[in-house]
Every structure is written in structure tokens, then in C-alpha cells.
Amino acid sequence: MTSLDKPTTTDQDAQASKEVTEAALFEAFGGVRGMVETVLPGLLFVTIFTINKDLHLSAIAALAVSLVLVAVRLVRRDTVKHAFSGVFGVAFGVVFAMMTGNAKDFYLPGMLYTLGLALAYIITTLAGVPLIGLMLGPVFKENLSWRTRNPGRKKAYAKASWAWGLILLGKCAILFPMYWWADTTKFGWVLVALKIPPFLLAVYLTWVFLAKAPPPIDVFAEMEAEEEAEKARKAAAAQQPEA
Questions:
Q1: Residue 137 CB coordination number (10 Å)
Q2: Do residues 13 and 215 touch, judged by C-beta distance below 8 A?
Q3: Measured distance CA(21)–CA(8) in Å, rounded
Q4: Up-side HSE of residue 164: CA atoms within 13 Å toward CB?
Q5: Which residue ranges traverse the bilayer (predicted)?
Q6: pTM
């Protein structure tokens, strides 16, 4: 292998940065399992409702499978935040649908949450504190250092937040009109179909933006280094003979 064939340090750093970014995104957004937990309750609801038009059975089945998913995570001692958020979303949907008697209202809380999240991405980016940065900063151990010390990374977080906000707004632009004119079965299947593709697109764009951004500043490592330096100074001072 010639020197031209060997990966440079820059290439190795870039590859390491991409791998760290992939791992962080999987941790932050739940990975494949998180996507399954997001889709399964709604898929079960619309499947049962398509077959027998029974709102109560469909709602109870969706809530039951959400609780089972949480129980499995608890037994395995896995992270439960994604499963718990799914349970709360399904529970609100069940309450809405039962109160109104309209099966489409099962999806309404999730739609309102998506709209609110889209606006949050856009508003926080305009305010100079993009939401993606607030979410991923602790995962990358950089906290908010990107705001003042890493402008290239702040720019990447802003791009990613714009991507999430616009993609989610596009999703809402499809679903809210359908909520008013489409029948429950058609609306439910379209909503389930739109669960994963927009999410994957937003995650992919986030990965692209962050993979090209400067590496995060590990503020925890900095604090540890400062503590070690302070201990060394104190030890050196203690060893000095008194005048």
C-alpha cells in the first residue's frame, strides 16, 4: 500500500465523527426499535378498525400493545423514554376518540404534537438556539458549547432544525386536510404510511449536516482536565517548602 492509499489522520477523524454522529442519532431518536414502537400501536388500531369498524376494540388493542412494549423494556432494563412517550400519545388518542366517538380523533393528539414540534424547530432556530442542538448537545457531551464556541456546529444544528421543521410541516399539510375530508380507514393508513419516511429523511439530513460539521467540544472532558490540573497545582503547592 502506498502512502496515497493509506487513510490520513483527517480521513480517520472524519470517519470517527460520522460514526459518533450515527450512534448519537440512534440514541436520541430510538433507532429501529423506537420506530417500531412508534408505528405499531397506530398500525394495530387502523388494521382492527378496517376489519370490524369497532372503535373500542381498536383503541384498547392499541393501548394494550403500547403497555406491552413498555413492559418489555422494563423487563430488559432498557431505556423507556421512547416507549413511555408512545404510551402517553396512544392514551391521549384513546381518550379523544372515546369522548367524541370519532375514530379519527385517535390520531388528533399526535397530529397536534407534530405541528407543535414543527413550529418549535423553526421558532428555536430563528431565536438562535436550534432545537436539534438542545436535544443532541448532551448526547455529544458538548451541552451548549456549540452556541458560542463552535459556530460551524451551530450552523449545522440550524440547518438540521430547519429540515425537521419543514419536513414536519409538510407532513401536517397532508394530514390535516385529510382529517376533515377523508374517511377514517383511508386517513389511518395514510397516517401510518407517513410515520417513518419523513422521520428517516429528517434523520438522514441531520446526519449529513453534522457529519460535515466541526467535531463537538467535549465539555465534560474539559471539566475533568481542569479538575486534574487543579489537583496537580494544589499538590505542587503543598510540596513547596515554606519560606
A1: 19
A2: yes
A3: 20
A4: 28
A5: 55-75, 82-99, 111-140, 161-181, 187-210
A6: 0.81
In order of 57, 77, 81, 84, 225, the CA distances from 69 in angstroms are 18, 12, 11, 9, 41
Q: For residue 220, count other CB atoms closer than 10 A to its CB.
A: 11
Instruction: Quote the CA–CA distance of 200 and 31 in Å, as a whole number.
Output: 10
User: With the C-alpha atoms ordered 164, 169, 174, 178, is the resulting torsion angle positive or negative?
Assistant: positive
Predicted pLDDT of residue 121: 97
* Residue 87: predicted pLDDT: 79
Query: What cell does 210 get?
Result: 453534522
Dist. CA 145–CA 134, nearest whole Å: 10
Percent helix / strand / coil, the chain, rounded to 5? 80, 0, 20
Query: In the numeric block, which cell numbers belong to residue 29?
Result: 431518536
pLDDT tens readout for residues 89-102: 888 899 989 899 99
Cell reading at 87 = 404510551
Classify residue 58 as exposed, middle or buried by CB count within 10 Å of its CB (0-12, 13-18, 19+). Answer: buried
Question: Comparing C-alpha atoms, which of 115, 119, 30 is closest to residue 69?
Answer: 30
Tell me which of 54 and 72 has the higher pLDDT. 54
Q: Encode pLDDT of 12-57 as tens digits.
A: 555 656 666 766 776 667 677 777 888 888 889 999 999 999 999 9
How many Å is the Cα radius of gyration of the chain? 24
